[in-house]
Amino acid sequence: MKIGTIEQAISLYGFSERLVDRRDYGVDDMFAELASLGIQKFELIGSQVFDQYPRPKAAEISAVLDSAARHGVTPFSYGGYTDVGRITGHDATDDEIMLDVTSDLLTARDLGATFLRAGAIPVRLLEQSAAMAERHRVRIGIEVHAPSRPSDANIQALLARMDEIDSPYLGLVPDFGCFIERPAQPAIDRHLANGARQELIDYVIEHRHDGLDEPGMQAQIASMGGGVAEKAAVSEFFGFLSFGPADVEGFTTLLHRTQYFHSKFYHVTEDLQDPQIPVERLLEAIVKSGFEGILLSEYEGHAFHLDDAHEQLERHLRLEQKILTGLQG
């Protein structure tokens, strides 16, 4: 669905829980769900979908494209990966990194995708990557992902180098997971179900940014009687579900180099609220920038072992539609 200058799309990653748990569920079922949600464009993650990765067999790609055509949906982006630690004790060389980038570009090209969402391509290889992307007519978007924040020095250095290269084949994919301001309620509920005490979870959330690092918070919670369940919560809240004041000002510095957006979310309430991420502030900045392109809903409720992707995606799409309609008149 398109609202003004912005078109909604969905990442197939949101269906991970069902894909893992049900042997009878596959890509064709995902495409059927996309169609039922009124979505045409999707992002496909190679390591999730293809048996042979990083270069899937032609038959695998054909099967995906045939299924997509049956359901009237289109791969607009391919999610690749640069595995710099594939071999234990060996850091990937520049040639090995470029081999991964090239493999992913070829797969994106074979899928007919406009974009490759890439991982951490080193700054020194950006110009070479842009040239390779132009050769294959696929645009690279390097994801800005939590726990990074847009204002971080390394992200700003990445942005500065992209500005120097100034290629339409090289840009960013800001992920809204960078802007989590508090944990999702399902995350809290899961820790409580595992035996964590509510008052200790509340303490971690309240004091997350009072100066303690993760080892310091672990020690503090242990001194208050916390055990294994609380230890897991602290680790999560300092790691992949880290949260804090949203760096919206830093976000605005990325917009001129953005290829599209990962509108990450963990939980939308029945009354269409996202208590974790300031979606309205982010969308307001996007609209003000004049951006024209894709806003990709990426559900990660499988982090809480929840099989509710369809319901949550439907809510999230409606939430975005409500906000964007208000912003764009």
TrEMBL record:
Recorded superkingdom: Bacteria
SUPFAM superfamilies listed in its UniProt record: Xylose isomerase-like
Domain Xylose isomerase-like TIM barrel: 31-311
Originating organism: Cellulomonas hominis
Key words of the record: Carbohydrate metabolism, Isomerase
Protein name, per record: Sugar phosphate isomerase/epimerase
InterPro entries the UniProt entry points to: Xyl_isomerase-like_sf, Xyl_isomerase-like_TIM-brl
Molecular function terms, GO-annotated: isomerase activity
Keyword Chaperone in annotation: no
